[in-house]
Amino acid sequence: MDILIVVDMQNDFIDGALGTKEAVAIVDNCKEKIENFKGEVIFTRDTHFENYMSTQEGNNLPVPHCIKGTYGHEICDALKPFIKNEPVDKITFGSKELPEVIESFKDVSSITLIGLCTDICVISNAMILKAHFPEIKISVDSKCCAGVTPESHINALNAMKMCQIEII
Quick check: pTM over 0.90? Predict the structure, then answer.
């Protein structure tokens, strides 16, 4: 079975509090990838709460975003029709629960990641999955990802490639 992880394609990362033109530009690519994917699709959501500004992340990135229950926390409208199961909410860059979700499937042969942001949450989850599943092919579709900046996007792709994550 092939699995597609759609990382944090949320309004706040696309055109909201932390949105970028690069993030807006990948929405159609992501939609096409999901539409044509033969396998299981799992969405993740960056999830914060009203106390965000008092957290370590809030101190380092003082821009409230993806607050649970807000429009910014929601998966973008273009991708909502593809959500079959409740997204995996994650309170950190990388999800500790995502490997458990993947383990619930039988005979996983590949895991592909797409989404936002390449240089924060995509790379974090790719590395966690590589550590948990060293013999499963893990790839990232670069046309369906965007970073905080174009430069940090490229840096993250190169770092993942060095860790034997296939970049497509």
Answer: yes
Residue 57's Cβ-side half-sphere holds a number of Cα atoms within 13 Å equal to 17
Per-residue b or e along 44-67, where b marks 16 or more CB atoms closer than 10 Å to that residue's CB:
bbbbbeeebeeeebeeeeeebbbb
The H or E element containing residue 94 is none
Segment 12-42, tens digit of pLDDT: 999 999 999 999 999 999 999 999 999 999 9
Looking at the chain, the whole-number percentage of residues with pLDDT higher than 90 is: 100
Residues 6+ apart with CB under 8 A from 66: 8, 10, 12, 13, 45, 46, 47, 48, 72, 73
Cα atoms found within 13 Å of the Cα of residue 153, Cβ hemisphere only = 19
Q: Using the structure block, give the residue that is written with the tokens 């590395």.
A: 127
Helix, strand, coil share of the chain (percent; to 5):
40, 25, 35
For residues 167 and 136, give the distance between their C-alpha atoms in angstroms, rounded to a whole number: 15
What residue ranges in the chain does DSSP mark as E strands? 2-7, 40-46, 88-90, 110-116, 137-146, 166-167
Mean pLDDT of the region 115-137? 98
